[in-house]
Design a protein that fits this description.
It is globular and about 35 Å long. By secondary structure, the chain is of the alpha+beta class. The protein is 18% helix and 32% strand. Strands 1-2-3-4 form a 4-stranded antiparallel β-sheet. Strands 5-6 form a two-stranded antiparallel ribbon.
Length: 66
């Protein structure tokens, strides 16, 4: 697995379960949760914008999709 420069979400505070993100040289992003660092999601930056928009619009709930 490649080594990425992971950044912790500022919304995570001091919590141990954090969302980490890394920018990759090919213009894509990597996401992982700190509790499962071996599970990495790759996506284009536009896809992340769409995901964040859906979450903010409450189209996706924390307990799953509606």
């Amino acid at each position: 697995m490649s080594t990425y420069h992971w950044q912790k979400s500022s919304y995570s505070g001091t919590a141990s379960n954090c969302l980490n993100i890394a920018a990759v040289g090919d213009g894509t992003l990597r996401l992982r949760e700190s509790d499962a660092p071996g599970v990495v999601i790759a996506m284009a930056s536009g896809s992340l914008r769409g995901l964040l928009h859906a979450i903010k619009a409450r189209w996706l709930a924390a307990s799953g999709c509606r």
